[in-house]
Amino acid sequence: MLKGIPKILSPELLKVLCEMGHSDRIVIADGNFPAESMGKDAIVIRCDGHGVPELLDAILQVIPLDTYVEKPMNLMEVMPGDPVKTPIWDTYKEIVAKHDERGAACVGNIERFQFYEEAKKAYAIIATGESAVYANVMLQKGVVIN
Asked: What top-level branch of life does the organism fall under (predicted)?
C-alpha cells in the first residue's frame, strides 16, 4: 500500500500510468467497448468491477492532462439517430473540472469509428464494468511538473 494514492489504482495500472510519457493516450472503456480487439498493440488492463467515473477521478489525481492540445480528454460521440442519453458525460465534466482548470472546455468528442481508430493507437486501454453506453473516455497525458 502507498499513502496518497487512490486505492482503486492497482499496481498494474499505476505502473502503466507511470510508464506513459507526454502525449501518450489511455482509454477508460465501458463494458461494451471491444478492449481486447482494439488493444492488440496496447496494454489492456482489466478493471471489470469498477465504473468509469471512479477510475477517471483516481487517474486524474495522479496524471495531468496535456496542456499542448485543446481537447486532451475525448468522449465517443453518439451515432446519429441513436436514441441514447449520456448523463454520464456531465459527471465526467464535473470530475475533470476538479483536476484541470480548463474544466469542460478541455473535453471533446470523437466520432465513434474514429474513436476506435484512435484507441488502437493508445498506450493502454482500461476495460471496466461500466454499464452506461457511450461512456468511453480517452485521455492524453500531459507533462508532470514538480
From this structure: Bacteria
User: In the chain, what are the domain boundaries?
Assistant: 23-140
Strand locations in 4-67, DSSP E? 25-29, 43-47
> Which triple of cell numbers denotes residue 66?
496535456
The string of DSSP letters for 83-129 reads ----THHHHHHHHHHHH-TTGGGGEEEE-HHHHHHHHHT-SEEEEE-
Residue with cell string 468528442? 109
* CATH number for the segment(s) 23-140: 3.40.1650.10
Known catalytic membership, residue 24: no
48 catalytic, yes or no?
A: no
**Catalytic residue of the set 57, 66, 92, 100:** 66
Active site residue 22: yes
pTM value? 0.96
